[in-house]
Specification:
The chain is of the alpha+beta class and 199 residues long. The chain has two domains: 120 residues, no CATH class; 47 residues, no CATH class. Helices cover 55% and strands 15% of the residues. It has eight helices and four strands; from the N terminus they run ααααββββαααα. The strands form two sheets. It has a two-stranded antiparallel sheet. A two-stranded antiparallel sheet has the order 3-4. Helix 2 packs antiparallel against helix 4. The chain is elongated and about 90 Å long. The termini are far apart.
């Protein structure tokens, strides 16, 4: 067996396949990070377009006959209505500011500004390769999946926890108790239990 292993290590015939197999992991992570960045940039461009459209709604010929506060309300409502259609973007309507001023000569200026935190988080995987630490950018889902499979610890920044943590309103059972109850359920359940619901 040892001679077979040595033969495999010295052979150069399959080295491309091994290198390609090892390269797939970082390539997949980079592609995932690129997709996430592209989606975030697309959402940002959409929000900028919504802000422009909202500002323009305050200077339409119809709105020019209205006072500044009415034009401001229309601009803010226009932005809120459009931005609410975006998925994966949560914002507080108080983070949207519309400012409308009209100078003598009936020249109106409308500005819509917003602050929107994205629910896009990024992760990094830290590998120890030959005593050297190597950090790879990753999507959080990929990093968590690799950590769970390999038994590696998972760390999260305090800001991420405070922004996205879910607080339970009831007492949370110990995970070991939940696992035990689930195991008991699996021991007692049969395929017929699921078929009974079809009738």
């Amino acid at each position: 067996m040892r001679s077979l292993w040595n033969l495999f290590l010295r052979s150069r015939d399959g080295s491309v396949a091994i290198i390609a197999a090892l390269a797939i992991i970082p390539m997949t992570l980079l592609i995932g990070a690129g997709v996430d960045y592209g989606m975030a940039a697309d959402r940002q461009a959409q929000l900028e377009g919504y802000a422009d459209a909202a500002a323009l709604s305050a200077v339409t010929p119809t709105m020019m006959t209205e006072n500044n506060s009415q034009a401001q309300a229309v601009a803010q409502n226009s932005f809120n209505a459009q931005a609410s259609t975006l998925t994966q973007v949560t914002y507080n309507t108080s983070d949207v500011t519309a400012t409308v001023t009209t100078t003598p000569g009936n020249v109106r200026t409308a500005t819509v500004s917003y602050s929107v935190p994205y629910n896009t988080f990024f992760a990094s995987i830290t590998l120890n390769v030959g005593g050297r630490e190597l950090e790879i950018d990753s999507r959080p889902s990929d990093a968590i999946a690799l950590a769970v499979r390999s038994g590696a610890p998972i760390y999260a920044a305090e800001e991420v926890i405070s922004e996205s943590a879910i607080e339970f309103e009831h007492d949370v059972e110990e995970s070991e108790d939940v696992v035990e109850k689930f195991k008991e359920f699996l021991d007692q359940v049969s395929p017929e239990d699921f078929a009974a619901g079809d009738s």
